[in-house]
Fold these 3 entries.
Entry 1:
Amino acid sequence: MLLLQAILLLLALPSRGQDVPVDEPGVPSLPPKGACTGWIAGIPGHPGHNGPPGRDGRDGTPGEKGEKGDPGLTGPKGDTGEIGVTGAEGPRGFPGNPGRKGEPGEGAYVHRSAFSVGLETRVTISNVPIRFTKIFYNQQNHYDSTTGKFHCNIPGLYYFSYHITVYMKDVKVSLFKKDKAVLFTFDQYQDKNVDQASGSVLLHLEVGDQVWLQVYGEGEHNGLYADNVNDSTFTGFLLYHDID
Ligand SMILES: [Ca+2]
Ligand SMILES: [Ca+2]
């Protein structure tokens, strides 16, 4: 070991010729610092410890812009927006197909009331309702042939008329409404001269009102007549029913 160090020392020593400073023009030769002439260099020391880390350097310049990334995930559905303004009215459409035929209404049947009747034989009794038993029309049966009275079932305005054949006796006949004579007809019979007596009237009736013909007055005025070739008739019908 010592031998090796000695060899290294000898190699490190400058040779005499080399060590002598050569005076170069303009460059003064300098003696070794703080050393005396003829100094001998020592053995190199061991390498020092690493110094503390230096301070962080300055921020570098921004790099170039990167490439565009992938699209993100779809977000949640948003709230329903407000209702928009109503648009303008569209053009008129084509006419539709005709509808089906409707069912028959009830009104026409409900508001029907009519009768037309006649005598079958001459009248022999006075001061009672005359019974017309020859039925020309009595569809609704509002006329009662057993009593000779018409019974109002529909309130409204009614038309009544009678045409009486007068034979053998005078005729005094009244049209009664609710036990009160409201129309009078008088015809005098002349021997061998058949006559006709008639009357007509419009009456407003309420439901339940009754209308009939009856011989009135004292005496024999029941010359109402009928046979196969002579009729005496009594007719009535609803003209207008009352509006509720
Ligand atoms: Ca007469
Ligand atoms: Ca006559």
Entry 2:
Amino acid sequence: MWDVASAWLDEQCHVCAQDSNQRNTGPPAAECGVRELNHLATGPAPGIGMPGLTSLIGIQEKGHITAGSNQTMVVSGAAGACGSLAGQIGHIMGCSRVVGICGTHEKCLFLTSELGFDAAINYKKENVAEQLRELCPAGVDVYFDNVGGDISDTVISQMNQSSHIILCGQISQYNKDVPYPPPLPPAVEAIRKERNITRERFLVLNYKDKFESGILQLSQWFKEGKLKIKETMINGLENMGAAFQSMMTGGNTGKQIVCISEETSL
Ligand SMILES: NC(=O)c1ccc[n+]([C@@H]2O[C@H](COP(=O)([O-])OP(=O)(O)OC[C@H]3O[C@@H](n4cnc5c(N)ncnc54)[C@H](OP(=O)(O)O)[C@@H]3O)[C@@H](O)[C@H]2O)c1
């Protein structure tokens, strides 16, 4: 009997899978992409899974954080699922300063008072360039980029020599007809090249061999109280579309979850 099943599936009404006693009809679980994750039974489930792995592996693979070297990290989309975890992981891994950029005053407060970010910028109300100069006086060494566009152009312009962009996502560009990753404006690309700033494509699904150890690490940090998880819940599969739209326009703090049933056999 499984405690927790985790799968990378599309939006759908039901999944056919067998448990280890082959009690359910349908194709074998592995063919559906379902696998057993017993060690997660007592750990945090949805909010930490894919966003946690994306943040952790993205930082490990592309962030080049060296504990004790006084690095400053900036996170855009900082109050969302990936961003809220990325900033906390940046601190855990040794950044001395973590600054978040997000879209409301309440989200800024959440980052600084609950998640331990050193500062936060409301990009809808504040001048991001001015605030960054004030809040990152030693420049930016690691940029966890969830949004792209003007915000990222502004951050990149204040990045240090041989610093690193973790190209997690470019949500501000998804409705535009541009290639991925979207090219930077020429002046910003010139800065990037001149300062030797890395900006490599990153896709978490290319690192499946690191998922098991990643989930164990994240669960451990969570149990130790080092990692806090926030979820925004909406009820009912019929509200999936509304939840997606809300997430795309900033309605969520932390991971947007659609709750299909509160029944659980755990
Ligand atoms: N590389 C990978 O393998 C991988 C895996 C998962 C996700 N991602 C990417 O990671 C990013 C975050 O995904 P998530 O699932 O964690 O979503 P999320 O951050 O929980 O939700 C999206 C957030 O983006 C912000 N946003 C929306 N439009 C924006 C705009 N035009 N400019 C600035 N901010 C905007 C909104 O917050 P505000 O209120 O702050 O505006 C919104 O809450 C996305 O770009 C996604 O595609 C990449």
Entry 3:
Amino acid sequence: MHCPFCRHSDSRVVDSRTSDDGSTIRRRRQCPECQRRFTTIETASLSVVKRSGVTEPFSREKIVNGVRKACQGRPVSEDDIALLAQRVEETLRGTGSAELDAHEIGLTILGPLRELDEVAYLRFASVYQAFDSLEDFEAAITSLRARRAVEDGEDGEADLLVVRPS
Ligand SMILES: [Zn+2]
């Protein structure tokens, strides 16, 4: 690591601290040449393979933007969206793979988004899963209703859970 002050080609780590969620490490470094100190932050690199085959660095901001679009006009705060994106990133990093495909990210967003707002979930799912007919919406809504019934503890509707959008 170059010293950012004098460009000396080496530096010494004087302190390391892992963030609470374990996803980053901050290192305090000192330049042996000019003696000045600086901090570096280390994160595991995560890349995304898009449908086109192009690879790009993972960006939490992109999740935020996609989810925000789906939540337009819904009673969902920026904090809710930021928290959702953080959860999604933690889940994805938790898989331990350095390369994710865009499809996997979409799938990971669907669960927490459904808990956050069902209308936003339907919007997101319709774009992401490329709904192309009313039947697709119908199936997704049926599945949402069935899930809600199960959560409410109603009996007899649990078998509806097998209905899923194709
Ligand atoms: Zn230096």
